[in-house]
TrEMBL record:
The lineage of its organism: Bacteria, Pseudomonadati, Pseudomonadota, Alphaproteobacteria, Sphingomonadales. GO terms for molecular function: (3S)-3-hydroxyacyl-CoA dehydrogenase (NAD+) activity; enoyl-CoA hydratase activity; isomerase activity; NAD+ binding. This is 3-hydroxyacyl-CoA dehydrogenase. Keywords: Fatty acid metabolism, Isomerase, Lipid degradation, Lipid metabolism, Lyase, Multifunctional enzyme, NAD, Oxidoreductase, Peroxisome. It holds the Pfam family 3HCDH. It comes from Sphingosinicella soli.
Length: 688
């Protein structure tokens, strides 16, 4: 064995040369890896005794992609494009041996080889679109020449990998080899290529054709999914180029489109979120060596929408759950909804049928809190009432075993006050799930003043185990996400009194990239959440809509009217109520521009985020971005509210806030942190 460099070596098995990449953790295509592979191929070609070359990787995976830490830095070493050319132009057959994942540049490398073998568990894909990019080393030109234009379109625009069996059927993989002996299987395949004198199959020399209608139909079918994103369309254009242009011209088109994305704001935003999500899992001041507590059983109080959804997360992860309700009717209803949700997932193919029964078998319904005595973690998910929550935690203090973690799912309330109802505040933490809790990825982990480090570590570890993206928040009203949401909602309400209509505000935020605007969201959730007919005095627009029986989609009308298919049109009644309220308040309505709507909805959010940072409620600006991307539908290609503030320019944001402060008052007073950063020419990213 000869070491080419620190991460690549070259060995011989008879007439077969074996290039081995060993660059933990995922063999990313760093400059040393690229240089080592290129040198390894050249050395093997120069060796007269070598008849074929196997490219294989040590560790748990084949090359899992580019080294994205090199993005934006001066190039060094052999480029990925040139390395693949070295492989493809080799005068001896090169066989890529794939296990784990071959993703992005890893699959592009394998496509440069003359043959590919894989173990059955391998996954292959081009996920660059998820970073706002496209495969930039020939992936969009070689892939359709192997699997066809339609399959390539699906792969490059979804970014989702395919399994080895599907890859074999499509021709992307030439042979499946023994899971336990990839090296032996790859060498045996190489010997067969030599013995049978099989040709050097260069994918670049193949052609691909497709019905021109394919592309228009594909765009139309995915228009809603791709809305607002630049990368999917650029990937589609590359596949079109593969069909209509010679290989080298297609490569030029791919490069042009790649550079346009790489230097654009959208990819920068998506790459920011990629790193921010991983950074959010790190707790700055957690003592070194802190170990999570063992959680082998979970208790959930409340079998409503939130309690049921929370329970499903743990059941799906194989953790037994005891769920408690106050009445048999409520308990049976909640358990029934959980079963139906699992069955619906199975019907869609998202869950194996036997998993429905396996998950439900882990659930123990109960009507007495005493049933939670042996649980390692107990999560309270009842309605937002401090007195009720404190009463529950007082009871749990007497029931729960020593060392059990007591968590509240509160969306707004003071976790420290809830913890004060117990003699063990160190065991209390906020676990704020988002509805629907079995679907939404964000989990706000709310650290109380006395929350123990190992409780915090346990919460973060559990979040990962159940497929959530955790963000640590301090204690304040609304924590991170809802506190900022309130700032936006206040302005949305003010705007419709001053001259805009709900559908104007919704349209502007939808065009910005949100899945829906605030008033459409209110109709969907139900305008009567937290509203009481007995105490309503018609003080707000919402009160008057509810009093008129217009409580959102469930009643067929709210801010909008809905037909039987839930298609919406602006509500005349809502418009009359809004106009009447403006008149009562003596507000002279005026024309409000889309620019003002957007600035007044977004700038106060950015400003509130700065205050959250000042107060230490969030660890870093990027954590705030993660919370808004995964919990509130902020468009990922905008990077979150704090990244968007950087994109707009903090001086621009401060000037805008100042302008609106003069017209609207204190709500727009810029935070000291925001003023300071803008004055120094800095951005939020300097604080990450």
């Amino acid at each position: 064995m000869t070491a080419i460099n620190d991460v690549v070596d070259l060995s011989r098995d008879g007439e077969i040369a074996v290039i081995t990449v060993n660059s933990p953790p995922v063999n990313a295509l760093s400059a040393p890896v690229r240089d080592g592979i290129a040198q390894g191929v050249a050395s093997a070609i120069a060796d007269a005794e070598v008849k074929a070359i196997v490219l294989i990787c040590a560790g748990r995976t084949f090359i899992a992609g580019a080294d994205i830490t090199e993005f934006g830095k001066p190039p060094r070493g052999v480029s990925l494009h040139d390395m693949i050319d070295v492989i493809e132009s080799a005068t001896k057959p090169v066989i890529a041996a794939i296990h784990g994942t071959a993703l992005g540049g890893g699959l592009e490398t394998a496509l440069g080889a003359h043959y590919r073998v894989a173990v059955p568990s391998a996954k292959l894909g081009l996920p660059e679109v998820k970073l706002g990019l496209l495969p930039g080393a020939g992936g969009t030109q070689r892939l359709p020449r192997v699997v066809g234009a339609e399959a390539a379109l699906k792969m490059v625009t979804s970014g989702n990998p395919i399994g080895a069996k599907t890859a074999l059927e499509s021709g992307l993989v030439d042979e499946l080899v023994d899971e336990a002996d990839l090296r032996g299987g790859a060498i045996a395949f190489a010997r067969k290529v030599v013995a049978e004198n099989l040709p050097l199959k260069k994918i670049r020399d193949r052609s691909v054709s497709a019905d021109p209608a394919l592309f228009a139909e594909f765009r139309a079918a995915n228009a809603r999914k791709f809305r607002g994103f630049d990368a999917p369309e650029a990937n589609i254009k590359c596949i079109e180029a593969a069909v209509s242009l010679p290989f080298e011209e297609g490569m030029k088109r791919e490069r042009e489109l790649f550079m346009g994305l790489m230097t654009g704001t959208q990819s920068a935003a998506q790459r920011h979120i990629f790193f921010a999500e991983r950074q959010a899992a790190r707790i700055k001041d957690l003592p070194e060596g802190t170990k999570p507590r063992a959680v082998k059983s979970v208790g959930v109080i409340g079998a409503g929408t939130m309690g049921g959804g929370i329970s499903m997360n743990f059941l799906s992860a194989g953790v037994p759950v005891t769920i408690v309700e106050t009445s048999r009717e409520a308990l049976d209803r909640g358990v029934g909804v959980m079963r139906r949700n699992y069955e619906a997932s199975a019907a869609k193919g998202a869950l194996k049928p036997d998993a429905v029964e396996a998950n439900m078998a882990r659930l123990t319904p109960a009507l007495d809190l005493q049933a939670l005595a042996d649980c390692d973690l107990i999560i309270e998910a009842v309605f937002e009432d401090m007195a009720v929550k404190k009463d529950i935690f007082g009871k749990l203090d007497r029931i729960a075993k020593p060392g059990a973690i007591l968590a509240t799912n509160t969306s707004y309330l003071d976790v420290d006050e809830i913890a004060s109802a117990t003699a063990r505040p160190q065991d209390v933490v906020g676990l704020h799930f988002f509805s629907p809790a079995n679907v939404m990825k964000l989990l706000e982990v709310v650290r109380g003043a006395k929350t123990a480090p190992d409780v915090l570590a346990t919460a973060m570890s559990l979040a990962k185990a159940i497929g959530k993206v955790p963000v640590v928040a301090g204690v304040c009203f609304g924590f991170i996400g809802n506190r900022m949401l309130r700032a936006r909602q206040d302005q949305a309400q003010a705007l419709i009194l001053e001259g805009a209509m709900p559908w104007d505000v919704d349209r502007v935020l939808y065009d910005f990239g949100f899945p829906m605007g605030p008033f459409q969201m209110s109709d969907l959730a139900g305008l009567d959440i937290g509203w009481s007919a007995a105490t309503s005095k018609g003080e707000s627009i919402r009160d008057r809509l509810c009093e008129a029986g217009k409580r959102g989609q469930k009643t067929g009308s709210g801010f909008y009217d809905y037909d039987e298919k839930r298609n919406r049109t602006p509500s005349k009644v809502a418009e009359e109520i809004i106009l009447a309220k403006s008149a009562e308040l003596g507000i002279a309505r005026r024309q409000i521009s889309d620019t003002e709507i957007l600035e007044r909805c977004l700038y106060p959010m950015i400003n509130e985020g700065a205050k959250i940072l000042e107060e230490g409620i969030a660890q870093r600006p990027s954590d705030i971005d993660v919370a808004w991307i995964y919990g509130y539908g902020f468009p990922v290609y905008r990077g979150g509210p704090m990244f968007y503030g950087d994109t707009a320019g903090l001086r621009t944001v401060v000037e805008g806030l100042g302008k609106y402060e003069k017209a609207q008052g204190e709500a727009f007073k810029p935070a000291a942190l925001l003023i300071g950063l803008a004055g120094e020419g800095k951005s939020f990213r300097d604080l990450n």
